[in-house]
Amino acid sequence: MDSQKIVFTGSGGQGLITAAILLGEAAVLHEGLEAVQSQSYGAAARGGSTRSDVIISNRRINIPKAFQPGVLICLTQEAYNTYSSIIRPGGLLITDKRYVKVARKVDARQVELNLYQTVLERVGTPVVFNISVLGALIGMRPMVRKESVLQVLAERFPPSFAKSNTEALELGFELGCVCQDEI
Amino acid sequence: MATTCFVQGNEACSLAAMYAGLDFFAGYPITPSTEIAETLSARLPEAGKKFIQMEDEIASMCAIIGASLTGSKVMTATSGPGFSLMQESLGYAVMAEIPCVIANVQRGGPSTGNPTHVSQGDVNQARWGTHGDHSIVTLTASNHQDVFNMTVEAFNIAETYRTPVILLFDEIVGHMREKLVIPEPGEIELVERLRTSVREGVNYHPYLPREDGRLPMSDFGGVHRYNVTGLYHDMWGFPTDKGELVDGLIHHLVKKIDYAADAIAHHVPYYLDDARTMLISYGSSARSALSVVEQLRRRGERIGLLELQTLWPFPVQLVRDYARDKEYVGVVEMNMGQLINSVKLAVDNPRRVYLINRVDGRLITDKDIKQTLRVIAGQGV
Amino acid sequence: MAVKEYIRERFFPHMWCPGCGHGIVLNGLVRAVEELAINKNELVIVSGIGCSSRISGYVDFHSLHTVHGRALAFATGVKLSKPKLNVIVPMGDGDALSIGGNHFIHAARRNINITALVMNNRTYGMTGGQYSPMSGVGVKATTAPYSTIDNAFDCVELARAAGASFVARTTVYHVNQLSELIKKAIVHDGFSVVEIFSQCPTYFGRKNKQGGAVDMLKIFKEKTVLIGSDKKKDNPALMERGIFVEKELPEYCKAYDEVIARARKA
Q: Which residues in chain C are closer than 8 Å to B239, comparing Cβ atoms?
């Protein structure tokens, strides 16, 4: 497998760093792959801008930062405006309609999800929005198996979160698969 | 079975400290090292051991020295500003020969600099931060498995040579997450402190080195009551200003580390067997350097990397040997040129040693390094 | 055990000036320890830098002579690491309350079972008689040729406010009270502070025209009273001696054992 570089961007509190960690952990613990996750952040843990990079590979990963990522996820307008230019030409750019109005011409395949709204309606809480984004990501780009992520979720969170986490992941995954089929 | 996990470098350091038998940690919150304190505040009490958050970094360094004297394996963790505050008592640990481990997860400096950005600007502070003539041990690592190994090694060296050992990590390695395989107990050998065999009632000389330079210790609370001081002292640990005793003490303190230099010169050579050009790097810079070496190798360039894990005492012989047949040496570090000075002193031709650096708080990239290499080779940017 | 057995005769004569009050504190400390019959192997004395701090070398305990101002931080490491040890920390006024002021209030706040002896001679003797945070206003010193304008701390009130659970004050003139208070402070389960007025005839006395050691001791006698004495009503300037605070509060090392219990349950 070639290295997959994914960059999550948005604002603190959206759970993007958690989603990035879950992805890396699923790859390392349950897929036998190498993964590196890093993050940059301002002083504000909530509301400030965040960026988290994940690289997944079957070989040693030297440079931990994802320059020119193949997948870019932008979950605020600011993140979209700032980061959409870093994507590898022809890469996959994922946004959510609630947060981002896709305005620019970007040399990438832009997928606008309506995940936030769907999660709110079907799971009933926005807390698991990040998990659904992760589901959508692996639905579109099967870099790790859904089962691996489910396993990591079960290991990391108390049982009381299991139902909503699973629902969110499945929901995102389905949506992601649909988008993938539409290519 | 060994456990695999996906953790931050700071967590890898903490888990390694637990593996090494850490008994006591004192610290003060500071970015980007805080996860070490956070992790240990959970792990140590679980193991029935001690964690304390002190009022500042000065107190943290002092507290671990006090705890070490009772027979505990001890550690503190900090970053630039806190490391500056620790320097006086770090010197005390050198003088009084107290085993202890100090992790400094480097950030941008001087002063407050930038807490969340990377730098390798404390390399020379680690060597000469405290006042007075002394030697010191400083280890580093570029990936989490090596963070683990070097942390365990730091405790082993501290206990073997009765010295403070500095773990000089950086923000990238400290904060990023990657795979770590925690070895089984026993897989890595642990060094326990050499304790005196002198029986109760017989004179114990706490500062009389054995022939091999080692000083067997007696724990506070044990049967030997002795004096520990930061003043020049005699074999009893009592203050002295006698010239010959002072001379012997300073020679002992410096040479016990310098004699060990070859034995603790941890490093990893990459593609150096047939290399014409050599990069020398350490910490997160070494990851980018290795990336460059692998890229250029694929194009047929005979380039290699010497990754140093022991920075101090500087592995003079090792670097000299590897540099001997190289056309030139590029030292990759994220500072204005710190370790490069020691490289220049070690090699036969210091004029062929070039600095490849970046100091804007961002990780030096493969692109940065390749660009400088082209300039060195006279090929422009 | 005889008093002598608590002394390291090998390291005498001591380095204090003739007439210094610190030797009397050493005497009071050794008598207190002897009367309590504490096992010397379970006694640790931790000191910083200054004339007072040299006391640690002269007693046959485990002795840790550290850096300026940080003795309580070192002592915290010793005590928390091995709580069964008795830890005594003699400090000068500059050592404890100037450079070490932060450690002083935080050790008090934690209420860790350490005995702090503040040997207050209102000057930095070791460096030649500069003014200290306990000199007070209107004092001459080698760094105050025109007299000080700095207010002094009230060590007792500072310790009380910071959370020390035992706070007392006496002078080296009152030798019996001195060893009694040190005894009580050692036995007390929590952070205990004994402020001890001690004379420095070499610098403070000479600079401030207080006469020799005997004259200075007389001042301690005349300018202090026992807590609650009627004399204080007539002369409010008198300094009180005795126990100001003595209360039971959770001790830090014992509280830490509960942290271990909670961690193991989790």
A: 57, 65
- How far apart, in whole angstroms, are the C-alpha atoms of residue B380 and residue B238? 63
> What mean pLDDT do residues B163-185 have?
98
pTM: 0.97
**Candidates 3.40.30.10, 3.90.180.10, 3.40.50.970, 3.30.70.1660; CATH matching C6-265:** 3.40.50.970
Instruction: Encode pLDDT of B57-72 as tens digits.
Output: 999 999 999 999 999 9
Q: Does C102 touch chain B (CB under 8 A)?
A: yes
User: Which one, of C84, C100, C106, lies nearest residue C48 by Cα?
Assistant: C100
Query: What pLDDT was estimated at residue C2?
Result: 81
* pLDDT value for C1: 66
For chain B, the first-to-last Cα distance in angstroms comes to 50
C225 inside 8 A of chain B by CB: no
Answer yes or no: do C263 and B42 touch at CB < 8 A.
yes
Q: How confident is the model at residue B311 (pLDDT cuts 50, 70, 90)?
A: very high
Question: Rounded to 5 degrees, what are φ and ψ at A136?
Answer: -60, -40
State the pLDDT at residue C3.
Answer: 81
| Residues of chain B with C-beta less than 8 angstroms from the C-beta of C44 | 220-221
A24: contact with B, CB 8 A cutoff? yes
pLDDT value of residue C124: 97
Output the pLDDT for position B101: 99
Per-residue model confidence as pLDDT tens digits over C96-130: 999 999 999 999 999 999 999 999 999 999 999 99
Report CB contact under 8 Å: B231, C264: no
Q: What is the DSSP letter of B213?
A: S
Q: What are phi and psi of B68, to 5 degrees?
A: -60, -40
Residue C203, CA distances (Å) to B207, C19, C120, C127 in order: 35, 11, 13, 10
Residue C248 per-residue DSSP state: -
Do at least 3 CB pairs under 8 Å connect C with A? no
Confidence band, pLDDT 50/70/90 cuts, at residue B244: very high
Reported ipTM: the value is 0.97
Q: Are A and B close enough to touch, i.e. 3+ CB pairs under 8 angstroms? A: yes
Count CB neighbours of B127 within 10 A: 21
CB contact under 8 A, B89 and C67: yes
Residue pairs between chains B and C whose CB atoms are closer than 8 Å: 135
Q: What is the distance in angstroms between the Cα of B195 and the nearest Cα belonging to chain C?
A: 16
Q: B179 to chain A: which residues are within 8 Å by CB?
A: 28, 34-35
Residues of chain B neighbouring C264 (CB-CB closer than 8 A):
45-46, 48
- The closest alpha carbon to C80, from C120, C54, C46, belongs to C46
Q: Which domain holds residue B326?
A: 267-376
CATH number of A4-181: 3.40.920.10
pLDDT at C254: 98
Cis check: omega of the bond before C13, within 30 degrees of 0: yes
Q: For the segment B336-371, what is each residue's pLDDT rounded down to a tens digit?
A: 999 999 999 999 999 999 999 999 999 999 999 999
Q: Give me the CATH number covering residue B345.
A: 3.40.50.920
Task: List chains adjacent to chain A, taking adjacency as at least 3 C-beta pairs closer than 8 Å.
Answer: B
